[in-house]
Amino acid sequence: MATGPSKPERSPLQKRNRKVALIAAGGFVAMVGAAFASVPLYKAFCQVTGFDGTVRKAEAAPDRALDRKLTIRFDANIRELPWTFTAEQVTQEVKIGQTGLAFFKVTNNSDQPQTGRAIYNVVPESAGAYFQKLECFCFSDQTIPPKTTIEFPVVYFVDPKFADDFETKGKGEVTLSYTFFPSVEAARAEKRADATAAKHSSALGVPAKAGL
């Protein structure tokens, strides 16, 4: 029985090039996946280590305070929200290891509820490993009703190890900075709700948005 011409056997060079291409493709897919996964991992890493000036979360205050004092400055910023955001104190003086209490105030100047999320960091960045918070309004959505002002407390301390680190022991001032951004999660949830409502309205033969 006649058979068709057999496929030419690949040369060693062709086999090697194919193997390299497959490895490169696999590496690209892995890098893309890592890029998407790296955002929450990076945020978690920063909060645990204080890297890049990120304030760390603590479970309890230190059991000792040093005689040395630090000046803590407070900074408040808004990005793309119709809010007024201010720190109720410009500075505080606290002992290293002593618990401090600061207040921030947010006013929604619009006629609609607005949802934002605050991120924070400290300057100098080397202080991020030692500036820790016990209570904070950051990294969670905050929905402010229209024409409403809400006060947020922040309970914090500077770890006594701050005084021993060669990068921070000579520092006498630390700035805690917050910036409110529109909540990405809230915007996505609103879009999903609008899409669901439009789908249900279409199934019932009713326009999604009817004018009066």
UniProtKB/TrEMBL annotation:
Q: Which SUPFAM superfamilies match?
A: Ctag/Cox11 (SSF110111)
Q: Which residues lie on this side of the membrane: Cytoplasmic?
A: 1-15
Q: Which InterPro entries does the protein's record reference?
A: CtaG/Cox11_dom_sf, Cyt_c_oxidase_assmbl_CtaG
Chain segments annotated as transmembrane: 20-42
Supply one GO CC term from the record: plasma membrane
Example GO biological process = respiratory chain complex IV assembly
Q: Does the keyword Membrane apply?
A: yes
Family annotation (Pfam families): CtaG_Cox11 (PF04442)
Keywords of this entry: Cell inner membrane, Cell membrane, Copper, Membrane, Signal-anchor, Transmembrane, Transmembrane helix
Write out the annotated subcellular location.
Cell inner membrane
Q: GO: which molecular function terms?
A: copper ion binding
**Membrane topology, Periplasmic segments:** 39-212
Give the record's membrane topology. Answer: Single-pass type II membrane protein
**Domain of life of the source:** Bacteria
User: HAMAP family of this UniProt entry?
Assistant: CtaG
Report the sequence similarity comment from the record: Belongs to the COX11/CtaG family.
Function, as annotated, reads: Exerts its effect at some terminal stage of cytochrome c oxidase synthesis, probably by being involved in the insertion of the copper B into subunit I.
Please report the name of this protein according to its UniProt entry.
Answer: Cytochrome c oxidase assembly protein CtaG
What organism is recorded for this protein? Phenylobacterium haematophilum
Designated gene of the protein: ctaG
